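User: Run a structure prediction on this.
Assistant: Running it now.
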Amino acid sequence: MKIIDGKKISIEVLDEIKASVSHRVENNLKIPHLAAVLVGDDGPSQTYVNSKIKACNRVGFQSSLFKFDKSILENELINEIQKININNNIDGFIVQLPLPNEINQENILNEVSPYKDVDGFHPINYGKMALGIDTFLPATPAGIIELIQRCNIDLKSKKCLVIGRSQIVGRPISILLSQNKIFGNATVTVAHSKSDNLKQLCLESDVIISAIGIPEFIKGDMIKLGSTIIDVGISRVDDNSSEKGYKIVGDADFKSVSEKVDYITPVPGGVGPMTIAMLLKNTLKACSLND
């Protein structure tokens, strides 16, 4: 078994981005600038945004945070996003999710300029991705691709099961892995909460990418020997043996699954660190397109 160390690989990616920024500085080119829009006081969202700002500082990016009260109206938030769209100093920005229930998330994401959409959620960028046209890829699927490539995992003709059909992870990664690209050419099946015989689908798969958020759902008896598990799920479960009273686990029961796999991503420290790294990689790309 080989553990796919997402933390280590994300540091490699960030170091490469940092080197690119240094090159830009030496050549008097613009320093990339990433901004984040945060609405409300959601704790996990604030923590995640802080992690992005910290990563920007590490690689030499400029960063900005636009924070708004949860009572902001949808049209007011749209006006603020339009201001960021025309701000030439900002190369890319993200709208931190979730948004308050009173705000239509789709309407907001559609207002982000596709040229600054480093989250890869705008319909134009999503459509380009589906057509195999170079664009900003959603950060988590892009991180999964980066892990697969850097670990030299060959997916050609492999049976790949994606569990979860969200627009953020499940759908885009299923599209990417089936494309005729160096990292793709897999035979992809997408399963979800209404799928029958999920255990059988798992047993038939060479690669399982799980993003359903059910703690330790995938057990050792659900996978075949020599398979690969990319665990995107992250859940907090009670753990009386921990000082915090809880532990962080993924969709896979690591103890039983790790005995049978060739490759597996841990939780935490697997896919998670790659998401921010790929967000910054998209921002560098957005900045370079304006050179």
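The chain has two domains: 27-115, 139-273.
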